[in-house]
Structure formats: C-alpha cells, structure tokens
Amino acid sequence: MTEVAATDDGGSAGTEQFIRIQICYASPAVQVLRELSVPAGTLLHDGIKRSGLLEEMREIDLSCWRVGVFGKLKELDTVLRDQDRIEIYRPLIANPMESRRKRADKKAR
After folding, report:
1. In whole angstroms, what is the distance from residue 37 CA to residue 18 CA?
2. How far is CA 79 from CA 71, 73, 82, 99, in A?
3. Reduced to 3 states, what is the DSSP secondary structure of residue 105?
4. Burial of 88 from C-beta contacts in 10 A (0-12 / 13-18 / 19+)
5. pTM strictly above 0.85
6. CA–CA separation, 30 vs 14, rounded Å?
C-alpha cells in the first residue's frame, strides 16, 4: 500500500491509504487492462467507475453483467484489496451445454 499525505478542509495533515488495482474487460473488438490507485476501502463498483471504463464502453451494464476478482465471481459491494484484478464478464451468447450437444450431434453424423 502507498501512503499519500493529504490535508482536509481544516488544514490538519492526515494520511490516506491507497491501493493499486487493475480493471480488465474484453470484447471481440477491444481488450482493456487498466491500472489505477484508489483509496483503501473502495468498493468494486466504485473501482470500475473510477477507471472511466463505463463511460468509454457504453455496452457494459453492471446491473446484469457479472464481475469477478481473479476469476472468482464477486458482488459489486465487495471491498477491494491491494493488487486486485477486477474482471468484467460479458453475457454468454449461447448456452455452453447446448453448444456442446450440437457439436456432438454433428460429429456423430
């Protein structure tokens, strides 16, 4: 963690802890990996918002898309930790079980 000196409105000096995180998103057309520093205690949703990715990639809909940290699904209110890699998962286009079934049927013929 990195400490950065900060002064509040009262003029007294304090310290605020910052953590480093990564935001990952990929579509067929683009791949994004961003690194940024956020205050300790930042929620997963706020980390994504701070990255600016939601404004750039308008197709991202966190109300129904899943997110994770290092491949494990997480809720948007998860508190981030130093060195976390947030991954934004697009919805599936096809049901994987149905796709396998179709491939198996085609191979059997």
Report:
1. 6
2. 16, 13, 10, 36
3. helix
4. buried
5. no
6. 40
The answer to whether residues 90 and 27 touch, using CB atoms and an 8 Å cutoff, is yes
State the maximum Cα–Cα separation within the chain, in Å, rounded to a whole number.
77
Structure confidence by residue, pLDDT tens digits, 28-55:
889 999 999 999 999 999 999 999 999 9
The half-sphere exposure of 108 on its side-chain side, counting CA atoms within 13 A, is 6
Position of tokens 């198996």?
Answer: 104
- Do 73 and 86 touch, CB atoms closer than 8 A? no
